[in-house]
Each structure stands twice: as C-alpha cells, then as structure tokens.
C-alpha cells in the first residue's frame, strides 16, 4: 500500500466548489419560496382592516382650500 497522498487537482476542487455553490443556491431558493408562501398564507388568514390608517387624508380635520 502506498502511504503518500496524491495532491488534489485544481479542476476537481473547482468542480466540487461549483457543485456546493449550486446546492447552496438551490437551498436558499427553496427557503425563500417557503417563506414567501408562508407569508402569503398568513396574509390570507388576516381580515382586511376597515379602519382608516393614521396619516390618510380624510382623517382628522378636513382640507380647506
């Protein structure tokens, strides 16, 4: 048996790095889609606000021109 280690080639290292980056991007994309879906479902469950929001025109004093 040989006790010496063979040096890893740059091409192999680059291929492995590319595969890892692809997996990471895919994982991030899936997480973003999952979060977006969860946020969409959460918004669908909440009823729409019927009260005017502070700062909207029409609330408080009427505009006088």
Describe the structure.
The protein is mainly α. The protein has one helix at 10-45. The chain is rod-shaped.
Flag low-confidence runs.
none
Return Rg in Å.
Answer: 28 Å
Distinct helical segment count: 1
Arithmetic mean pLDDT = 80
Proportion of strand residues: under 5%
Structural class: mainly alpha
Oligomeric nature of the chains:
single chain
Terminal CA distance reads 95 Å
The run of helices and strands is H
Task: Map the helices and strands.
Blueprint (H helix, E strand, L loop, with lengths): L9 H36 L20
Give short descriptive properties of this protein.
65 residues, mainly alpha, 0% strand
Short characterization:
This protein has 65 residues and is mainly alpha-helical. 55% of the residues lie in helices and 0% in strands.
């Amino acid at each position: 048996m040989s006790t010496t280690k063979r040096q890893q080639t740059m091409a192999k290292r680059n291929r492995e790095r590319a595969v890892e980056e692809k997996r990471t991007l895919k994982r991030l994309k899936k997480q973003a889609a999952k979060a977006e879906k969860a946020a969409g479902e959460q918004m669908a469950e909440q009823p729409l606000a019927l009260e005017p929001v502070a700062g909207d025109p029409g609330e408080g004093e009427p505009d006088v021109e």
